[in-house]
């Protein structure tokens, strides 16, 4: 099983939308509390060790999230703890990177998500309670969405509607937004505790999952948002990230402070194909087939 | 540092959530603070309640032994005056003091220790306050301050006084140095060299490192010039405690009551021509004279230390922060090089480079070693002994370290923001060097205490 050992603690890992064997990893020193950060671009290859680093970029502060551009195959965007958003181009030599650095957020930028349908813009969510919308060619953010009362941990685009996104915040609300509207279009008080992550179902554009400090994952339908479709219990501590599978409509992967990665099916169905990658504060990045133990060599 | 603490709080709240009403602002949680302290250790130079601070430092005037203002003053009276001053001027209840350590060198150990206890009573300390002496030769006063700082940090007590006293009118170094009756010492070069008279070590330094008579005399002139200027400008009034004592006329034996408040060893008219006329004392063709060596003197000093949190609770002004202390051993034959080794060691312990130090007090035991050390460390002479040194004032052995604290911290306070770190250092007979790093008292600034990082990111 391919394993990569990073020097710092892992925060986020994403597959490239263009190359199925390419990954970007966001890492930070000292669990992201103090120190530097590093972005690794990894390549999967047959044979041992299975995964090798093709390039790495050092940053002055922790890297909390990274995402690949949907329009350029070599470009990635990083969310940095010092409030900056940096753009890297792996096709350019290391000294020219980062190609852009946007310093607008007043606090740590916790997540970055690229628009998969429009492919021209991306969102950042920050601990300064705002979500910002950006495009590469603009020197400044296009819009700032300021409604949350506490840290915004994640902002995710709807996979089908290019103008719609959801945000998860420590103020315990999940908000749905439409960039054409001035404010949020829906406010769902999804949990009684902080919501650390949210993600849209890739097969049903009205369904989302939220994960919370209350150790649960809840699945919501925006058409009937008063009651969740499902409440998934099982994690021992706060659930840090949740993601819907792009391969199977009801499969959710989650990771938690309880040091586990869990897979959930909120409906029942048959087996799947596809690789998963996860990274954690043990400085390891695992890539594995669902159903197998990534730690097996 | 604030940022790191904030991040830690946010992460800890993921694991220890407060049951929220939906609008949660960032509240202070006492249970989180203990885990915050481990992050604090990452930055030793930030301001924290645990810092050991100096809230008062006073000294008596320094007078020529046997001929100056304190020639008929008993050492316990001398010490009592500074012990009283640090407590009175801070309105501290003397019974709160946890311990007093007094640096003192020549007097017989047990007798001087007893005299110190007597001095504490003179100064108004009750039975319950203990006292002890420490002897690391010329560094004893500084060692006393370091011992108190270490004990407070170790949690033995919260408030301590580091002091020093020497009455070289009363106690003399035997002429020609000490004699060891153990013949075995002659078989060990280092042991044998420990017995060398200090003046011979000065000649050794001058010869081995090429410090000329002229350079030494120039250093002496500069010392007197700066000291005279400091006295004339009234700078030293803040640190000197006037002592009411008596003086006995050597011929008539008549006693006169006097108040001593001015250093009487300084010769404002010191010049190269006069110094050149002096004969060398230790070696016929040498370079060390009475004019370019420290004077034999009487004096005392005391420094009051406690934790920053306690000083703030008591509303006491913070004169300085004790940052580090280092003592190293060197070749006894050239004991004067001590500061050249101790200063880098102390600076490193404080996480600093020598270039970060803004002010130095380096004891001028002999101009030869003083000049050598400054050259070796490539110091800017505008930052060293700016108000004169032991050649002008005198070197009351045990008191010097403690009196340098008063002089250094007061000068740093005068210089303000430009002067953040200071070092006190001295060479030590039998081959050692000691140094301590201090930070200016009011320089604690939570935001700007971080040192500039060298281009690490993009």
From TrEMBL, chain A:
Tell where it localizes.
Answer: Cytoplasm, Cytosol; Peroxisome matrix
Q: Name one Pfam family in it.
A: WD40
PROSITE patterns reported in the protein's UniProt record: WD_REPEATS_1, WD_REPEATS_2, WD_REPEATS_REGION
Residues forming the EIPR1-like beta-propeller domain are 152-264
Output the superkingdom of the source species: Eukaryota
Q: Where are the WD repeats?
A: 102-144, 145-187, 188-230, 232-265
Q: Which UniProt keywords apply?
A: Cytoplasm, Peroxisome, Protein transport, Repeat, Transport, WD repeat
Answer whether the UniProt record assigns the keyword Signal to this protein: no
**Its principal location?**
cytoplasm
In terms of InterPro entries, this protein maps to:
Beta-prop_EIPR1-like (IPR059104), PEX7 (IPR044536), WD40/YVTN_repeat-like_dom_sf (IPR015943), WD40_PAC1 (IPR020472), WD40_repeat_CS (IPR019775), WD40_repeat_dom_sf (IPR036322), WD40_rpt (IPR001680)
Family according to the record: Belongs to the WD repeat peroxin-7 family.
Protein name according to UniProt: Peroxin-7
From TrEMBL, chain B:
Keyword list (alphabetical) reads: Acyltransferase, Fatty acid biosynthesis, Fatty acid metabolism, Lipid biosynthesis, Lipid metabolism, Oxylipin biosynthesis, Peroxisome, Transferase, Transit peptide
Q: Where in the cell is it found?
A: Peroxisome
Q: Where is the Thiolase C-terminal domain?
A: 317-440
- Signal peptide per UniProt: none
Which InterPro entries does the record associate with it?
Thiolase, Thiolase-like, Thiolase-like_sf_Thiolase, Thiolase_acyl_enz_int_AS, Thiolase_AS, Thiolase_C, Thiolase_CS, Thiolase_N
Coiled coil: which residue ranges? none
Instruction: Indicate the family of this protein.
Output: Belongs to the thiolase-like superfamily. Thiolase family.
Q: What is its EC number?
A: 2.3.1.16
One Pfam assignment: Thiolase_C
Q: What is its main location?
A: other
Task: Give, as one word, the top-level EC class.
Answer: transferase
- What protein am I looking at? acetyl-CoA C-acyltransferase
Q: In this protein, which residues make up the domain named Thiolase N-terminal? A: 52-309
Name the GO terms of the biological process aspect: fatty acid biosynthetic process; oxylipin biosynthetic process
A single Gene Ontology CC annotation of this entry is:
peroxisome
The metabolic or biological pathway listed in the UniProt record of this protein is: Lipid metabolism; fatty acid metabolism
* MF annotations from Gene Ontology: acetyl-CoA C-acyltransferase activity
Which PANTHER family does the record cross-reference, listed alphabetically?
3-KETOACYL-COA THIOLASE 5, PEROXISOMAL, 3-KETOACYL-COA THIOLASE, PEROXISOMAL
